[in-house]
Amino acid sequence: MVRMKRKYKTMSGKVEQRQTAQERLQVKLTAKEKELKQLRRQDRSTSKRNRNRVGDSAHVKSLQLRVSQATQLSTNTHKIHDLEKENTDINSKLESTEGNVGSFIREMSDLLESHELSTNACSEDLYDSHDGRYEEKNGKETKFKLINH
Q1: Distance CA 10, CA 109 (A)
Q2: Which of the listed ranges 19-33, 93-107, 117-131 does the model predict with the highest average pLDDT?
Q3: What is the C-alpha separation between 106 and 91, in angstroms, rounded?
Q4: What is the reported pLDDT for 12?
Q5: Strands annotated E in 31-98
Q6: Contacts for 144 with CB less than 8 Å, ≥ 6 apart
Q7: Counting CB atoms within 10 angstroms of each CB, which of 66, 74, 91, 137 has the fewest?
């Protein structure tokens, strides 16, 4: 039971950490996507200008570098989707664990209650049926030990 509680706390902590990391990555992704759109617009306009004149190759190269860096950001999108899937899986496992722990607690509670009832009923039956407190076995009297609750 303690082990399951620890596992539950550990899983909850992991879920929270992953959600925080996921939120941070989502914010970065949104910013980079905006930057990528802006860079593509700049690249198109620069390309048009460069067609008309031999232009600033350093500026074009820097724009191309920025575009390639922004393109790499799209791979981060896949990472975010993977994290979201893993987060969903962990949440479902967590819910399942919570349900299993609840079922276990209910079953143990029911078991303990039924055990206590049967123990009390047994001790009353012994006391009532052997009011003389002695039984004859093999020709000898044997004293009963009564269970007191």
Answers
A1: 26
A2: 93-107
A3: 23
A4: 80
A5: none
A6: 126, 130, 133, 134, 135
A7: 137
For residue range 73-120, what is the model confidence (pLDDT) as tens digits? Answer: 777 778 888 889 999 999 999 999 999 999 999 999 999 988 887 777
Q: CA 37 to CA 60: how far, in whole Å?
A: 16
Read off the amino acid at residue 8.
Answer: Y
Q: Which residues contact 68 (CB under 8 A, 6 or more apart)?
A: none
- The token pair at 64 is 């191309």
Mean pLDDT computed over every residue of the chain: 76
The pLDDT of residue 85 is 92
Are 63 and 41 in contact by the 8 Å Cβ rule? The answer is no
Cα 132 from chain centre: 61
Joined tokens for residue 40: 């593509």
- CA distances 73 to 15, 26, 59, Å, are 24, 11, 21
